[in-house]
Amino acid sequence: MSEYLPQDIVMKILSRLPPKSLIKFRCVSKSWYLMISTPYFINLHTQHALLSPKMMLLRRYSKLLQTDVYSVHAAAASEFDYAGIQIEYPFRDRVRFYYRIVGCFNGVVCLLDDQFGQPDAVAIQLWNPAIRRKLTLPPPPSSVNEDPSMSMVALGFGFNAERSDYKVVRISYLYGDCEYLLPPRVEVYALSSGRWHTVEGEIPHNCVVEYFWSQVFTHGNVHWVAYKTLGKKNSKRENLIMSFDMIREVFDEMLLPEPLENEVPLNLGALDLGGVLAVVQYDERVCGMRCSIWAMRVYGDVGSWSRDYAISLGCGIGRVLGAKQNGDVLLATKAGALVAYSGVDGKCEDLCISGTKDSFYAGTYNESLALLNEGDVARHRLPSDSESESGSESGIEYQSSIEDEDEDGEDCLGDVEKSEFRMQGSMSQYLSVFFRRPFV
C-alpha cells in the first residue's frame, strides 16, 4: 500500500490505529519501523488518541488475591463497565503490597515504591501498559545525601505540551528542629533529556502535607494541597493550592475557599473532578463519615470555588477518587467497596469491585506510544481464567509466599489494611509535632 500512497497519507492512516497494532506493523518493513518510531509520529498518534473516547484506569489491592489489580474501563458508558479489561502489570512481587500512583497522563503511569515506608532505594517508574514499556528513573542527585527518616518527598507528574515531553517534579523537605526546613529542594526529570536538573528561582516556603501527597495535573500545571505557617512558633497556618508550571518550571499559589483555609491539612486532598481542579474535605481522614467536594469552576479564578457535593455515608468514607462523565462521584468506602455517589438523589451504587480503601486509584486513560524509544520491555503473565478472587471468576495468579512469615511471625505479605492505617497515623503524629498540638 505504501508504494501507491504518499508517506504523509500512510502516516495519517497509521496514526489512527491502536498501539498494539502499530507495534506489530513495525515488522512490516524497515521504513515502517523507522516511521512509527519517530517522535513526530508518536506525538501525532497521541494527539489522535486524545480525541478518542475516554477510558478509565482503575487500580485496587485485592485482599483475597493478595496482589494489586489494574483494569481499564469505558468511561463514556451510561452504566459502569464492571468487567473492564485487566492489563498486564510488570511490578508485581517487587514491592510490599502496592505502589503509590503519582499520576497518569497520555497513557503513561508514574509509580513510586514508598507507599509503606521508604526502602533503601526509592524507585520512580514510568510505565506504558498499552505497549508494555517501563522506565526506571535514575536517582536524583539530592537523594544521595538524604536520610529517608529525616525527609519528606512530594512528587508531581505531568506533560510539557510545547515540547511533547513528560516530566516528574520532586520536592524534597528536610526535617530539623521539629519542623521541615524551608524552602525545599526542587528537581525535575525530563524524559527528553533522561536527566534530573535543579529548579532555580523562587521556591515557595510551603509544605505539602496531604495524605500521600497526591497531585492533580491540569491546564499544564501540577497542583498539590499545601500549607504555610504564619506567626511565631508555627502558631498559625494557612492552607492553599501550590502549583508548578511544567513548561516554565515556576511555582504559583492559589487561595482556597474560606472554609478550607484553616482546616486540618490532613483532611484535605487535591482531586481531578472530570478535568476540573477540585479539593475534597473530609470530616476525618482516617475514619470519616462525611466529606465535601469544592470545585474551581473557572481555572485560576479563586472566586469560582463552589461546594458541588456534600457526601455522607453511614458505612464510612475511605477515599474519594474522582467523577464519572455523568457527574457521579467515584469513591471507596471504609470497608473497601467501590461505589458511585449521585449528587442528584444522594444515592450510592455499588459497582461490585472491592479492595482495600486506600489502594484504589481511578484516572483518565488513553492508549499511546509514549516510552516506545525509552526504557525496557515490561511483561507479566495475564490473569488466568481459572483463577479468581471468589474461586469462579477471572483473577490473577501470583507467585508470592503467602505461607512465608517475616521476623515477627506475620505473613510475608502482612495485613495491608493495618499498614494503611499505620501510615495515616504516622502522618497525624508528624503534623501534631509540627504544630505543637494534636489534630482532633
UniProtKB/TrEMBL annotation:
Residue span(s) of domain F-box: 1-44
Biased composition, class Low complexity, residue ranges: 389-401
Entry-linked Pfam families: F-box (PF00646), FBA_1 (PF07734)
Region of interest (Disordered), residue spans: 381-415
Organism domain of life: Eukaryota
Biased segments, Acidic residues type: 402-414
Matching NCBIfam families: F_box_assoc_1
PANTHER family named among the record's database cross-references: BNACNNG10540D PROTEIN (PTHR31672), F-BOX PROTEIN CPR30-LIKE (PTHR31672:SF13)
Protein name (database record): F-box domain-containing protein
